[in-house]
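From the thread on structure requests for the teaching lab: each student submitted one protein with a one-line request. Submission from student K.M.:

"Model SRR1-like protein isoform X1 from Enhydra lutris kenyoni, tokens only."
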Amino acid sequence: MASAALEPWQAAASRRKRRSAERRQRGREVALRDLEAQPEADCGILLRRIREAGKDLLLSDFWSLALETINSCLKKHLEQLKVPEGTLSEALGNLHLDSSPNESAAVTPGFIPGENPVPGTCCWKCVCYGIGNFATCVIARHQLTFLLLFLEKCQIPRRHCWVYDPLFSQQEIAVLKSLGVTVLSENEFLVSSRGAAVTDVEFSLRRAAWLGTQEGRRSVHGEPTIFYMPHCGTALYNNLLCSNWSVDALAKMLIIGNSFRGLEERLLARILQKNYAYIAKVLKGLEELELPETSQYTDVFNDTSIHWFPVQKLRRLPTDTWAFREEPDYQDCEDLEIIRNKGRAPSAADQNLPWQGSCPQR
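Reply posted by the TA:
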């Protein structure tokens, strides 16, 4: 009896509450079984929606205008990469501007944007960050469709496109793999300065700020690379520049994402220089072409530009520019936007952090 007296007293839950909890649990289990029972059907529906989005995009004024912008930028970049004359002519020929409704892809039943095999090889690789949950978000689906068509127009094989978003569902991962792109299963660039992988951490605001400095660290490793990052957080662009901070590396990069000029206009100069120093320092070393704005895709590609870095401009930057090697520090950023690892539930602190990307409810 003495030992029993030491046990903490607990109030018994009412029968009604217990039954309600049991019903909720059974409901969750049934819903989970239903989701697991029809993955192929769900993937088929999603692929059909991607087809429909692709047909709409091909018929839009936005696509034809965007192709003109893309062609102008990529032509200059190919010339900078010193592609051999014959290969250059062939590559530029592949960047054709024919986006008429009679294009075969637009009328072929079962069409998936960019589904046709890409002949030959292309000098570019492609990395995509932050598209989001395209199964539930229409904006994200349009951004994915644009990526697939972009790969086709630039003759980039899908296997040379790496895609990552920590919020991808298993269904979305299955669809992406069926489309032929390479899905990164985890953020392989989320590495601390000492080389230790950071996974499944509990976030506080300070911890989240520190993690923001560790993501998006993809080096081009001497390979011409197009980074497709629609509506990502400013820290991600800053990290990417930091990881490629040399004339040679930047000259091989293109970034399709938030307008750097727009960031310059929106942020106070001292904030930009303090929190996003690499963006601030490279502004005079880049060229930026805005994607067209049309009413149909206003929320999808607003404030989006193609950025590239002419060697001549980079070499005209102050000589101490390339000696700058400070680690980005976002601890004092009030508008920090980061990629979160999936596999952990958002903490209370996370609820106060704005999310990068197009669909805040992802």
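TA comment: Residues 15-37 form the longest helix (23 residues). The CA atoms of residues 210 and 331 lie 6 Å apart.
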